[in-house]
Predict the 3D structure of the following.
Amino acid sequence: MAGKIIADTIETGAGADISTSYVVNGSAKAWVNFTQISTQTVRDSFNISSITDVSSGRTFPISYTSNMSDGNYVGSLYQNAVTGTGYINFDNQYVGGFGSKTTSSFGERSYGSSGDIDSNAVELIIQGDLA
């Protein structure tokens, strides 16, 4: 039998009340861990329906299963946020250049000291409001 729980607050073991809005708003709305080496392969994900390899170090679109409410992933505390990391064994590796952000997808760029480069692991977390 399916059901639903309706609550405005949650009480911690120490007796402190926490508004459920902190839990809902502070939880990751999507995340993905994938490799760009050889063939892009998703290791694990949540709320990500697909990724597309564009070129070395570039992935677009990374599409959501459930859309975000707007395309403002980076900005004020109350907007959506995208964070990510990447690494490669032989180069200083960075993940950045989140671009082409829409409510349904975003792009990612991995680069090192020699330019765009495929990463062994790209790990992205998306926070904000779902549509």
